Amino acid sequence: MAASVLRHARVISILTIVSRIAGLARDMAFSYCYGTTSEMSAFALAFQIPNLFRRLFGEGALSAAAIPVLTESLHREGQSEMAVVVGRLIGLLLAVLITLCVFAEIVIAGLYVYYQSQTDTALALELSAVLMPFMIFICTGALLGGIENVYGRFALPASMPTVINIVQIAAALTAPHILPGNIRAQLYLQCGSVLIGGLLQLWLQWWGVWRCGVHFRLSLDWRHPAIRRIGLTMIPMTVGLGVVQLNVLMDSMIAWWFVYDPPVGGLEGERPGTAILYFAIHLYQFPLGVFLIALATAIFPTLSKYAAAKDLVGLRDTLARGIRVALFISIPCMAGLILVREPMVRLLFGRGQFNLIPDADHRVALALSMFVSALWAYGLNHLLTRAFYSLQDAKTPMKIAVGSVFLNLALNLILVQTSLREAGLALSTAISAVAQFLVMAFVLRKRLGRMGWRRTIPSAMRTVAASLVMIAAVVAVDHWLAGSRDAIRLTAMIAVGGATFAVAALALRCEEFHDVLHR
């Protein structure tokens, strides 16, 4: 793997760590102010909708389809021609997003008329209507960030989530003072902060593209070979990612409708399932975003260059190296999160409104352990999907994603009705991710030939061995500090676990350790 790929991955990782820390602070504020109440579930459900479109038209299908074409246009035809393509692409995107936003607002209004008598559901629809324009800002900003990636600039795009997190933290801290005792009104203010953050992010990304020298003019003209190629490639990607993201939304909706805590001790009944999933998802996505998605983001332009040059050997070797690094990162993270889940959830969230539901900490921790059991599969799926996209083959991952979604939905409807409740939804997501990886790896093996599994498997086994040493050390520390404060217990477990894994990895001569640190 080229040293520049890992260097870019480190830049993205560092900036993503900053944004994830800010996101963690935001979630701590949310847990304190809103807990796992029905109001927080309504906000989490509403926020899923613009994020669904972000995955499709921002950092998802459109960026994945556009980056290889824009990279090829830049290297073959020059920057001026690429600027023409960018102007038309952004103009068409804005037209589509504004149309979708108006249509979505009409649908939400219709649903509101039907559900307005159900207070909680009506709130979710109201918040959805307020947040819908965020889709326009975040999708356009994400595509502009992808254009910056073509020029090898990853810092500004990777720092953008921090902007929104900071604005949301400010809103969460001030809302209780402005609107004391009124959680619903505070959530409206929170939605306003999301819109402000999205606008600021869009402006900064626009400036970043112009700083790259891409001085484009907006146009609605789709008659350009590059635009047509992007559109044809994007259609199957949109179908595949759309089904996947719709399934993510369905997870939240299933939790909303099926996970209901009846009134206890004079308290009103609550719908905590969606909020519990929200907090669990953001915890397991910390290492996923910081390390694994960062690696996939950094490796994608390199894979696209090899694919454009018809160098399948270079593409295969780069992908195989990426897989080994992803496993080296994800396996110990997976084990570590499972071990520290209980004290971590209590320390981060266990105060304020969060404690209204007595077992909220345990339920978040259980859902987290289910999600994180397939952390390695999530990371590898990002890598393999980008390998297909770099070959401009979006149909294959689309078909596999559709099959995975149907499996996930079937498991959701079964497991949510067991004692696992919302954790059953997390488990079904993990099982589906593993199945998706196995099928994609099999198909890509037939497409590229040998992918270096004979070298990858021993590497993974060394990583597992180092992780087992880490697990033994962390369990011993946890037993020794049983009854101590969560802050002391968690700090000791993380410190000992990280140090033990590093020593074991060096002793076992895991070359990926050197890759991560020195390249």
Please, how many helices? 18
Whole-Å distance between the termini? Answer: 10 Å
Q: Proportion of β residues? A: under 5%
Shape: globular
Structural class: mainly alpha
Secondary-structure element order, N to C: HHHHHHHHHHHHHHHHHH
**Biggest β-sheet description:** none
The counted number of beta strands is 0
Indicate the low-confidence ranges by residue numbers. none
- Specify the helix fraction band: over 70%
Q: What is the gyration radius calculated from CA atoms?
A: 23 Å
Count of distinct structural domains: 2
In round numbers, the mean pLDDT is 84
Comma- or semicolon-separated keywords:
single chain, 519 residues, mainly alpha, 2 domains, 18 helices, globular
Please characterize this protein's 3D structure:
The chain is mainly alpha-helical and 519 residues long. It has two domains: 3-259 and 268-451, no CATH class; 452-519, no CATH class. The chain has helices spanning 3-33, 38-58, 61-77, 79-115, 119-131, 134-150, 155-178, 183-211, 225-258, 273-308, 312-349, 360-372, 375-390, 395-415, 422-448, 453-480, 486-507, 511-518. Helix 16 runs antiparallel to helix 17. It is globular and about 65 Å long. It starts with a helix and ends with a helix. The model has no long low-confidence stretch (mean pLDDT 84).
